[in-house]
Design a protein that fits this description.
The complex is a heterodimer of chains A (313) and B (244).
Chain A (H helix, E strand, L loop, with lengths): L1 E10 L2 E11 L4 E6 L5 H8 L7 E6 L2 E2 L5 H6 L1 E5 L10 H5 L1 H5 L4 H14 L4 H4 L9 H13 L5 E5 L7 H18 L2 E6 L2 H7 L2 E6 L2 E6 L1 H6 L4 H7 L4 H7 L3 H4 L10 E3 L4 H11 L3 E5 L5 E6 H7 L5
Parallel strand pairs in A: 3-8, 3-9, 6-7, 7-8, 11-12
Antiparallel strand pairs in A: 1-2, 1-4, 4-5, 9-10, 12-13
Chain B lengths: L2 H18 L5 H4 L16 H31 L7 H13 L2 H12 L3 H25 L3 H10 L3 H31 L12 H9 L3 H29 L6
The chains are: A alpha/beta (313), B mainly alpha (244).
């Protein structure tokens, strides 16, 4: 658990982060979303002390981070940034091995971990381990960046606009990968982004920042149904709020028991927004919900979907 | 073997042959002289002079590279940043102050011979390495340094594992520049009795022997070319595939 207590960062008289308190639950993804200059990156960088707070403190599992030497603290915390900052003079394997080597792992253990992570990220070790970053595509570099951040198995991973440089297709893929990774390693992740769609897609909790303050930090659905500030509703966009709400729920959440019906089949993991789009496209009033094994788990009617799009969560 | 290597070996072979058996080249230089003056330098061993020359240059370049890199690293650290203008002024002074004047000042202090030449070359060679070290360190991508800090490297680890390797191409280029400049500059050392190829040129000037002047000049020039080339090869070897 990450506890941020009355954290501020002032440069001269200007407060970049202004008296922020929030709690990040373990094994969840928290996204911090805001416009540029809202202080979201500075807030993130105070967690691993790349920026020293002017006042306030950060506790990780109850321990005050100010009591540990900064570079030792950072070895326990994964860190991935926009532009990745891969070391251009080191191979992919050497890049990934950075933190394990700093921690003094023995060679065999480092090698095994590098091979494991390359596998997890779909980069065949025999092909990619000895390549240099400039020999990789943008998407592959991005995966190496995240693999490097996870190399020493940190409980906490900080990501600053990690997908900012990717095109929309690679970006969607990277987001899905991150969700898988989080489930796989049970890591606590804090992601800073300026993209509200990304914040909603990734975040179990979303924090909205403006002018150094956290305006609201809550479940994404609560942000939509109970925005705490006009800026929050503006950011979410009133024209899209119902659809956003639907995209937070999956077919499994809303499926109703019943006999097989005439209509398309949708996966349990599909969001209600996707199911709605499918039904509109097919001109069908309802869909069959089918799990990964192909077993039918229930029905989902247009009416049931629409009800979820306005329901107070 | 490619054309570059062939040319390299030819130049090296020509130089070594000339230094080992200079009399073979007498017919080439004879037409430059009149009245039966010697066509080949005969007041000392050319090979030994050439070796002294190159050893002096390399020793001076090594010392100035070491000092310049250390100084460059220091002034780019937070603790040393305030010394940047001062260091830059000093290093620039070393370059603008004529080596001949350095000799004139140092001879009364340290006597004649190799030492004043080493001092002059040392001062003269600082600037390219110093400026290139700073340019290299300041040119490291911001995101890469941020990542190095974020991974938990200490300041020293970041310097050794990231900043210096990334600056290496520029630093080596500075060393190469400083070496080549000093191969030529070192000839003036002979005015204060340092052993080197300047001796041949000065002997030629004193006795109005064009052949001597040309021999001293050509051997110096060939050595400069070969050193330049050797440094290029070294750079390519040291700078790993990523930055070639």
């Amino acid at each position: 658990m990450i506890t941020i207590e009355r954290l501020s960062k002032r440069y001269d008289d200007a407060a970049v982060v202004d008296d922020v308190s929030m709690v990040v639950e373990p094994r969840t993804i928290t996204t911090i979303v805001g416009t540029s200059g809202s202080g979201k990156s500075t807030l993130l960088r105070m967690v691993n002390r790349l920026v020293e707070p002017s006042s306030g403190r950060v506790l990780i599992d109850g321990e005050d981070t100010a009591l540990e030497r900064p570079h030792l603290l950072r070895r326990r915390i994964g860190y991935a940034i926009q532009g990745l900052g891969l070391f251009p003079h080191r191979t992919v394997a050497e890049n990934i091995a950075t933190v394990p080597r700093l921690l003094g792992w023995d060679g065999a253990r480092v090698q095994a971990r590098v091979a494991e992570l390359l596998g997890v990220f779909g980069l065949e070790p025999a092909t990619y381990a000895r390549k240099y970053p400039h020999e990789l595509s943008g998407g592959q570099q991005q995966r190496v960046g995240v693999a490097r951040a996870l190399a020493a198995g940190p409980n906490l991973l900080l990501m600053d606009e990690p997908f900012g440089a990717l095109d929309p297709i690679l970006r969607a893929k990277a987001q899905d990968d991150l969700l898988d990774i989080q489930r796989r390693f049970d890591t606590t992740i804090i992601v800073v982004t300026h993209d509200i769609d990304e914040a909603f897609k990734l975040g179990h909790r979303v924090a909205v920042m403006r002018a150094g303050r956290v305006l609201q930090h809550d479940h994404p659905a609560r942000l939509i149904t109970h925005p705490a500030d006009p800026f929050v509703s503006q950011l979410i966009g009133t024209g899209e709020r119902s659809l956003r709400l639907l995209s937070l729920l999956t077919a499994a959440d809303a499926a109703q028991a019943g006999d097989a019906i005439e209509g398309p089949a949708v996966a349990t993991t599909a969001t209600l927004r996707e199911v709605l789009a499918e039904l509109v496209w097919r001109g069908a009033p309802a869909a069959n919900v089918v799990d990964a094994g192909g077993t039918r788990v229930g029905n989902l009617s247009l009416h049931a979907i629409l009800a979820r799009g306005r329901e107070a969560q | 073997m490619n054309a570059g290597n062939v040319a390299r070996l030819l130049v090296l072979g020509l130089l070594v042959t000339f230094l080992l058996v200079p009399r073979w080249f007498a017919p080439v230089f004879a037409p430059l002289n009149q009245f039966g003056a010697p066509a080949i330098y005969d007041q000392g061993n050319l090979l030994s002079l050439a070796l002294w020359h190159v050893a002096t240059v390399i020793a001076a370049a090594f010392a100035s590279a070491l000092v310049a890199v250390v100084l460059g690293v220091f002034v780019t650290r937070p603790a040393g940043a305030q010394f940047l203008p001062l260091s830059r002024a000093m290093v620039n002074f070393g370059q603008t102050f004529p080596p001949v004047a350095v000799l004139a000042i140092t001879v009364p202090l340290v006597g004649f011979g190799q030492v004043p030449t080493l001092i002059a070359l040392f001062a003269y060679g600082l600037l390219p390495v110093f400026e290139n070290t700073i340019a290299g360190l300041e040119g490291c991508p911001r995101a890469t340094l941020d990542a190095a800090d974020g991974m938990g490297m200490s300041a020293g680890q970041r310097l050794l594992a990231v900043e210096l390797p990334l600056s290496l191409p520029l630093i080596l280029e500075g060393v190469r520049l400083s070496l080549v400049i000093n191969v030529g500059t070192a000839t003036i050392g002979s005015t204060v009795a340092a052993k080197g190829l300047g001796e041949v040129i000065i002997a030629g000037l004193l006795s109005n022997n064009t052949a001597f002047v040309l021999q001293g000049g050509l051997v110096t020039a060939l050595m400069a070319i070969l050193l330049y080339d050797a440094m290029r090869l070294l750079e390519r070897r040291w700078v790993r595939g990523s930055q070639g």
